Each structure stands twice: as structure tokens, then as C-alpha cells.
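We emphasize that the prediction below concerns an isolated chain of 385 residues; any contacts that depend on oligomerization or on bound cofactors are therefore not represented. The input was used exactly as deposited, without trimming of termini.
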Amino acid sequence: MDDSVAEAALHSAGIHRIVLLAWRDSADPDSGGSERHTSAMAEVWAAAGIDVTVRTSRVSGQPPRTSRHGYRVVRRGGRISVFPRVWLGIPRLRSRGTGIVEVWNGIPWLTPLWTKGANVTWIHHVHEPLWDVMCGPFTGAIGRTVEMRMAPRLYRRSLICTPGESTRDILERRLGLGRDSGRISVVPPGVDPAFCPSGLPDPAPSVLVVARLVRSKRVELVIDAMRDVVGRYPVTVLHIVGDGPERARLEHRARATLGPQRAIFHGAVSQQHLIEAYRSAWILVSASAAEGWGMTISEAGACGTPAVATDIAGHQDAVLANVTGLLVPPSELGRGISQLIANHRLRDKMGHAARAKAAELSWERTAWRTADALVQSASGVARMR
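Result of the prediction step, given as a C-alpha cell string:
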């Protein structure tokens, strides 16, 4: 469905306004792929003339209200209080002509309890393996119970979007959502056209990690894997792009494991610097414990760089195994990296395939397929295309 047809369908369904509920804003220092996903859809819809608002939590040093790329951003409440702050505005959110897109990021917004009209729930991935790591055993147990046992009962009749087949399988199998009902639609993410190949990669082997430096990204596994890689290929350099609370610990680990010259921490960088990092790298590596897709994999692929990634749901959609990269268990990260460093022909072949796969992804398609789900919700159609 192109934008003109989708916009007409929204209006025909009586949807004149879209409100996205997101835990964090894309301007938040801790934002990641989910926040980029939300802002990209909002930008596409706003460019088509749709009234779009993103309701999210406050960002330190940023105003409570702002406009960005044609849509409004309302930031109220902290990481937990954002939920009741949104619920206080339910009467307005239930106004006629409003479509709700909820981003369920571990803690749901409970929209089935209070929405009347069109609403769609985006679930990027299941947080089950991350709760204890991110929140500790007590709070983690509460979060896991809400996500895995309580919330799914409310969402059994909801229309859900998720980025890949592997995540849909988990939603059906572990949460019991959409089972035998066709209520889950697979809608892959987009890739900004700015991510494209140019020039030649670094002359010496260059391995790249792009991630928020938090425990769930398991960057330490890449650092440990690089010990054997550097032993075989001593001029190899590990580049780590991103920032977060784990940075100091990871820098210390890298110095102790690889020495001062084999790992470079770049921190948060501009998009142009990120593109240059993707273009110059030989291999993109992701060791995440959980992902909905792995957008850095597709961005690197758009720049012609193949990936070595942990064999988890999400990565299984972003990487075509043995075609655009390698999917390996955590213990085999070093072997996978070494294999692609040693085999230039295979690496180039995978880089070309990764570029072709990334070319299939666009934010316009993501946004309008989500809008199509809103239309179906408004019309009461249970099965999604």
C-alpha cells in the first residue's frame, strides 16, 4: 500500500490522528532501535499530512513538548510514571478519529482496557531473558510475570505488529498471542537511504560493534572473542560505537584482554560518522541476548558489510544465515569473525548479498503497513494481511 492509498484508507476508516505511545523518546541518551523505529514511522506519516503525536517519558534537559520532522512529541513522567501520566489523558486519547499505536517495550500500556477505536500494538521482542540482567532478581521477576503471564491475557484479541518471523514465533509460542488467529503481522523495519556503500574498507582487518553499552548487548563476549582473533591476525582492530553505563567496565576489560591498541571506543557518534564506520569495517558483530531485528545489522548490510551475530530470534531475520552473514552461538563468535577475515571472497559475496537484502527495507513500507493494520483494527477485521 503506497502513501496516497494508505492515507485515503485511514481517512475512510475515520482515522485523522495517530498517537504513538513509546517508553522512551529518540532524543533520550538511552534510546535505541525501538525509538528510531517509532520516530521513523511518525516522520513518514507526518510528511503525508497526518496529525501525529508521540507520547513518551521526559528527557533530561529537553522541553516537555516539542515538534520534530512535522510531528509533536509530548514528554511527561519518568521511566515508570510515564504510564500513569498517559493514562490520565485517556479521555483525549479516546477521542473520535484517533488511532493508537502502542509500543510494548517490556511493560505494556494496557490499551485493550481503555481504547475504543483503532489500535495496534508493536512488540519488537520478548524481554524474558533480560529482566534479571537489567533490573535484578526481584524487580525482574515482577517484570517477567507482567510480560509473560498477565499482559498476554489482555492482548489475545489485539492486532499486533512485530518485525520478523522468529519473533512472531516466540509471541505465539511463549506468550500465546495470535495463536491460530492471524492477528500478528510481520512488518520488517526500514533502513535510511543514507546508509550505502562508498569507497573501500580499511586495509587492515576491522571489526565493528554498534550498540548501547548495556549488559543485554553482551559486548564483553565480542571483546573476549577478539583475543583469539587478534592472536591469529595481530593487526585486527575492534571498533566499538555507542555509549552507556557499561562503557568504563568494557574499556577496562578491552585493555586487559586485547591491549591498548586493539580496541577503540568511539562513544556516541553522528550519523555520518556511523556510516563511515560501517563502510570501513570488514565485519559487523552483534552479541545481543535479545533483539527484535538487529537494525545495526541491516544498516551495515546497506553499506556492504556482512555480519557475525548470535543465533537468536531477531538476528535470525536480520541475517540470512551463510548468505548475508553468520549466525553462531556465543562461544563461536571468534571462529566466525576469523572465518570472514580469512576468506576475502566469502566476505565480499556476503557483503553484496547483505546490501541486496537491506535494499528491500524502507521506513515508508514499515509505516504504511502499520497504518494498514490500524485500518483493519478500525474496521473490526480480525485477520491481517
